Amino acid sequence: MMAINKRILLLLCFLCCCFFISPSYPVSDTLEQSQQLEDGQHLVSADETFKLGFFSPGTSKYRYLGIWYNIPGFGQQEGGVGCQQKHSNFRKIWSPYDR
């Protein structure tokens, strides 16, 4: 019984950290002509619904441009990402859970 209470307490602490710790990287909804989007940086829509940035799925050496749902306060947990495969007509949907 005591082990279950410790697990519940640990889970509650983890959830509090996820929801109350804000991201430490700067976010903006505008990119100037001379600016570059560096690794770890994202553009966030004005209403904070979507996020744009580069990603590498799994162990891929390639970088892709993605637009995904922004879940503020949830760290790097993002929703699914759609990307157009090179030389292909089908659209692959990738999410962090596909790793």
Automatic annotation (TrEMBL):
Organism field: Acer yangbiense
Keywords on record: Disulfide bond, Signal
Residues in the signal sequence: 1-24
Record's protein name: Uncharacterized protein
